[in-house]
Structure formats: structure tokens, C-alpha cells
Amino acid sequence: MSGLSQDEAERRLEVYGRNEIIEEKRKSRILLFLSQFKSFLILILIAAAIVSALVTGEMIDAIVILLIVLFSGVLGYIQEMRAEGAIRALKKMAAPKAIVVRDGKEVEIESALVVPGDTLVLEAGSRVAADARLIEAVGLKVDESPLTGESEPVEKRSGDMVYMGTGVLYGRGRGIVTHTGMRTEFGKIAGALGEIEEEETPLEHEIERLGKGLGVLTIIICALVASVGLLRGSPLIEIFMLGVALAVAAVPEALPAVITIALALGLKRMAARNALVRRLMSVETLGSTSVICTDKTGTLTRGEMTVRRIYMKGRTIEVTGAGYEPEGAFLIDGEPIDIPDHDLSSILKAGMLCNNAHLLHEDGRWKILGDPTEGALLVLGAKAGIFRDELEKACERIDEIPFSSERKMMTTLNRCENGVYAYTKGACEVVLSCCRWILVSGGQKLLDERMRKEILEASEKMAEDALRVLAISYKRVEGDGDVEKDMVFLGLFGMIDPPRDEVKGSIATCRDAGIKTIMITGDHALTARAIATELRMLGKGRVITGSELDRMGKDEFDEIVEDVRVYARVSPLHKLRVIDALKRRGHIVAMTGDGVNDAPALKKADVGISMGVRGTDVAKEASDIVLTDDNFASIVAAVEEGRTIFRNIKSFFTYGLSCHIGEILLVLFAFLFLDDLIREKGFPLLAVQILWINLLTDGLPPIALSAERPGPDVMREHPRVKKEGIFTRRVLFYGVVVGLLVALQGVFIFNIADPLKAQTMVFTTIVISEMFNAFNWRSDKESIFKIGFLTNKPLLLAVSSTILLQILVIYLPPFQGAFHTVPLSLTDWGVITLVGASSLLLVEGMKWGLKKVTPSPQGLP
């Protein structure tokens, strides 16, 4: 075949375009950066910075707020830039070079120059440069797992399709290119990936909602104060200053920064537990996940075919060990076999000689080069101390009859010390039809119908247990007869890609935490069911296939989606449909995957989790979290951290809320009811003092609270509902009750204090009260006396530093003028401490009472 001429190839290149994945037109970098500042809360923070500068005349607070805004914007910009890498990763997976036939000659060209109609030349180890239909295939097997997710290589013959980005494991072939670039299967996935829009995480939505709520609250408070002040005839400048103070008290300036820091600290802890977070907000979302959709191969399983069972001489031999590590034992009725004294060595050697794979030990781990099924036979032999390289020195291969789909078997001829032997492996029925004899104890005997029936029943039993079955036989070759006739039957191998050892426990933990684990795989339903059953994830759930899913309408699928635990033989579009249905049911969905086929689903899910070891670049770029050990158990650890992060965010938000409410109520109470005291002592709090309190209470203590470790019950709680955010009724209840106490503490101190010290004492009382309150929120239900005051060292440092800063403001002359403070006596400090401690006692009492009413470990609802 002469292939295309160079002139024709160039003409088609102009018509069809380059064979590459096209990137979407990117946003302007400047517009992308500016879009990070459209949040309503961010706008409030900018306004607060301007107000702070105008009212106080000091630029420090304004600079701090603006730096927070800038930091938040830069962070969002970086995350969006990373998201654009998904399409670029698809380009990297395309083969950089391709061999085609041009003008009757094989030439190597850039894969981007391949055009429809080109003749692709495929060899073992090469990557397919474009979609093509085979016109020639000799022993050709292709690894399509990056595209389809199926664990086993696909045998190809003339007339079959091969696809861009898949790899040729062995054999050779030629194919006519049918599609290039975005028209290939890879291109379709790239198109689907580009069409999926990034959705807001629950936390992002909550912060935006909170910002708008605070803005409305600020306007209402200022309007109320202005109305009352005008009715009372207060000076306009006084009303304005009071309105500014209340507005500043209502805005939690540091909240976005503290949340970002809390997420960053959680990110660091998750990295130590083998989960790298690419998108900061997904840390919290993972903690609220109610469904984990996971691939089977390489995620729940090891991604390494392993022989589990051998049948020979009418007996079944169990094999222990999993994966490519050559460690394990051979057991009959639970008792180990002494290999040298057992005929088992004959079937092991036959499986290794009739084999084209290689077992390698590189970088401290064992790996297979070639067909995983053949690799499993090499590992099996290595478990018995037999290695192929040494074996072939004694039995050199002299010929091979390759496997084909028509023959369903493969045969090698090996010259051994005592003659030439043929070794055949393949489908049980086919190999058995070639056999006249069977190996038995003490020699071989004629294979009768009863024995054939027993062998077939043993094969069927393995298949029912989702084991892939290979039969093996041999014969001594004499003369020029048919080498695959009158053979001696040796036995059967039953193999499977086994589950990871730790996954069963991780799935049980998810079950306790109210998280559904769903398997979505391209493998056969029987295999998927067997793995799901072994992992105890199926229960009473259903198993459905992609073809069954295709026959269901949207409403019908929505009705049964909650009951399905395994999806088998599915396509990438099926995965998206499953995620959409689960989201319609109100679930927060995490999706794990490693192949190109998983990328759209990873991006569509609330949290995409890719495999760092086996995962493709496309999957990693489309995901939010990358597992560095490909271990499902690491997902559970990440969920635990995510739940802890959200609990901590809610705790320090409640703590901060009580302070802001306390400030607002104190100023309102004074303005409405303490007119005589105000004329004598001035306002209880000034705007600059409120800013300082906010800076102290919203600064170091919340960051220290965000470092709180997971509690023992965090994985025994059910996931929070999707619509539930930070600001709940219980949070509001705690915030209002404690805030009211803080306001009453201020009113009490304001009443009893010397006029010269009143503002300073109220100012300091609120700071000290909130420091006691910080210890309350190490847990929303456990007593601080049970947890201990000394077990969170960052909080001790934060509280100590905050009190020290307040002392400096009170006693250093430069700060006294700026913050209108005067020195306090030890007696004053004693009164302040006793009054402030009531915050700790009140919340302790509330925890005790609520625990009596709701003893289950539910935390803040």
C-alpha cells in the first residue's frame, strides 16, 4: 500500500486542520483578575477600608483590609489559571510523533500533521496518533484504559477501531485514519470538558449570601440610628460617627482572610495524609460530601491482575497475596504446599513459558511490561521462586503461534534439555478440545468425559466468582504433526484485579458517616458485582449497566438512582448523567477517577478527585484534589479533614458573630437608654475602638481555632444538607445570646466605672470577654473543662498575644491618644476579668443543657 501522496496530505491538512486538541479562547488576564473582586462582601470590605481611613485618620486598618481583598483576588486568579490546564493536558497526551505511509514509504512525522486517509503504522510501545480503522492486525493488543477505564487490554483485529491517545501493548498493525483533532474520541471529551461550567462550592455561595445579608443589615442599622438621632435632635456629625461605628461593628473585615487561612491549614494537613488540594474551597466541600462516585480499576482495586485460584488434578489451590509483589502462599484446605514436592511447579512453568510479558523491579516497586493477564502468571511463578529469565535459559523459545480472537489461544515451542515442548494457554473450552490426556498424580491418563465435565464446571465456578479463567496444557513435540493436538491438560488459572486491602475499612467508615459509595466502571457487571460484594459496598443496592441506563428516561432514573450502588459497562456520558441525577436529589457529589474518560465527570462533580500515581494529566488538571498514593483510604482521611475544617469555620464564625452582635447591641442600648450616662461619660465605645476590637477578635484567635484537630465523633455524623451553610439558626441563637451577654457586660461596667475610666473599661471588658469566649468554641458541644485549656497551644498563644496588645493600647502613651484610653488599676482588671469570665460560664451551661436534650453527636446544625 502506497498511502497518501505528500501533496494530497498537505491538501487534506488545509481542509481538516491540524491533528490537535483546540484550546478555548481564553479570557483576558486583566479581566480574569478583576473578576475576582465582584463579590458583594469584597465590595463591603473595600467600603469599610475607605470608611476606616476617613473616620480614624489612620491608614493601618485600611491597608490591612485592602491587603486582605488583594490576597483573596490573587488566590482566586491563580485557581482559575490552573483550571485552564485541563485542555492543555489533553494536547500533551497526543503522540508527538507518528509513523505513516506516504508515497509508498514509511515516514515519521509530527502527529499534528496526520490527516484523514493516512495509513498509520502501529507497533508495540507506540501511541495511537489519531482515530483509525485497522486494515491489518497481527497479535495486536491496545491499552484503552485511559479512554474507557477498562482494566484489560483490548485485542484488535482487522476492521476494528483504534483511538487517539491509547497505547499499543504488543503486536503490530496498520490502520486508515478516520478522524483527527477535535473529531476524535479524545476531541469529543475535550469539547465536553470545555462546555462544563465551574459551579460555586457551598462555602463560596454561603460567603456571598452572608456578604449580601451583612450589607442589608448595615444599611438597616444605620437608617435606624439616623432616624432615632434626628428625632432626638442629636448633632448630625454625632449621628454620622455613630452610624459609621455600627457599620464597622457589623462587618467582619477579617472573615474572608480567616476562612482562607483555615482552608490553607486544612490543605497542609490533607497533604500530610496524601491528598493534594488544587482548589482551596473544595476542602470544605469534600467535608460535606454525601456521595462518592468511584472508579473500580486502580482506585477500589490495585489495578494489577492477580491469580487467586488454580485448579489441577481435581483440586483447587488458593493463592494469597495481591498485585505484582511476588509474595504469597499456595494453600490446599488452608494448609501451605511445599512447591518442590508438588506437581504445581509444572503448571507454573508452563504459564511462564507461554508468555510474552516481563516482570520488572524498578524504583523499589514491581511492575509488568506487557499484558497484565500474562504478567499475573509471571508473578504467580515468582511467588514460588521461579523466574522466567532463568527458566528460558533451560527452555529456549524457538517458535510461537500467536493469540487471535478466532483461535482464542496462544502456543509457544520451547527446546528443553530432554526435547521440544509445546505450551498452550487460552479459553478453557478451546484448550480442553486440544487435549487427549490429563496430568494426574504419578503421571498422565486418558481424559474421559467425566473429567472434561468436572473441568468445565470448575471453570464456570471461577467465572461465577468474577475470575478471569485461563486453561493451560502442554505436550512433547515429536515429528512434524500438529503441535496443538493430543495435548496434556494441566489445569486452570483464575485471576482478578483484587481490591485494595484497606478499602473495605474505608467504605465502612463512609457508611458510618452517612456517605454513599458508588462504583462506576467500564468493566463487566459480574466483575463489578463481585468486587462490590467483597468490599461490602453493595448491600441491598442495585447493579445496572450502561445499556440499561440508556433505556431509562430522566424521571425513571431519578426514582432509582438512590438505590444503585454499581454502574457497569458505562461511558463518560453515563458518568455525567449519574452525577446530574444525584445532584438533583440534593447530594454533594465527589467523583474519583484516573483516565481521560473521567475528566468531564471530575469537573462536573462538586469535588473531583484524581489519582496521582496512575492518573493522566487530563484527570489531574480537571480535578480539585489529587491523591498522591491512589488510595481510597486517603479520600476518607480527606473527608474527615474537610468536615473538621467546616466545623472549625462554623465555630470561629459563631465566636466572631457574638462579638459583633455584642458591639452593636451595646452601642444601641447606650444610644437608646443611657442618654444621661453618655452625656456624663461619653459613648461606651468609639469607632476606632470597635475597629481595634474587630482586629483583635477576628484575627489570631479564629486562626488558632481553625487549627483544632478532628474530634472522635466527626466521622459518625451524617453529612450536612446541601442548603445548610455557616449561618444557621443555632449559630444565630448562640451568637445572639452570647452577644447579648457581652452587651450587658459592657452596660454593667459602663454604669459602675469611674467616668474617666468608663470607655477604657468597657473597651477592655469586651476584649477579655471574647478571649474567654474563644475557649468556648474549641468544640460546639464538649466542655472546655473536658477538652482542657492547654491542648490547643496556638490558641493559648493567640489569646496571650491579644491580651498583650490590649495592655499596650492601655498603657503606652502614643496608643492612649489614638484609642482614647487611660491606665487601669489591678482592681479594675479584677472586675473586668470576673465580668468577662461569665461568657465562659454561660456557654458551658448552654452546652450542658443542649447535650441533655440532644445527646447524639451532631455538632452545630
Automatic annotation (TrEMBL):
GO MF assignments: ATP binding; ATP hydrolysis activity
InterPro entries, A to Z: ATPase_P-typ_cation-transptr_C, ATPase_P-typ_cation-transptr_N, ATPase_P-typ_cyto_dom_N, ATPase_P-typ_P_site, ATPase_P-typ_TM_dom_sf, ATPase_P-typ_transduc_dom_A_sf, ATPase_P-type_domA, HAD-like_sf
Annotated Gene3D superfamilies: Calcium-transporting ATPase, cytoplasmic domain N (3.40.1110.10), Calcium-transporting ATPase, cytoplasmic transduction domain A (2.70.150.10), Calcium-transporting ATPase, transmembrane domain (1.20.1110.10), HAD superfamily/HAD-like (3.40.50.1000)
EC annotation from Swiss-Prot or TrEMBL: 3.6.3.-
PANTHER family in the cross-refs: CALCIUM-TRANSPORTING ATPASE
Enzyme class: hydrolase
Annotated TM spans: 30-53, 59-78, 214-233, 239-265, 652-674, 686-707, 731-752, 758-775, 795-812, 824-843
SMART domains: Cation_ATPase_N
Domain Cation-transporting P-type ATPase N-terminal stretches: 2-57
Membrane topology classification: Multi-pass membrane protein
Coiled coil: none
A Gene Ontology cellular-component term: membrane
Keyword flag rRNA-binding: no
Keywords: ATP-binding, Hydrolase, Membrane, Nucleotide-binding, Translocase, Transmembrane, Transmembrane helix
Keyword Hydrolase recorded: yes
Name this polypeptide is given: ATPase
Species this protein is from: Candidatus Syntropharchaeum butanivorans
One Pfam family cited in the UniProt record for this chain: Cation_ATPase_N
Locations listed in the record: Membrane
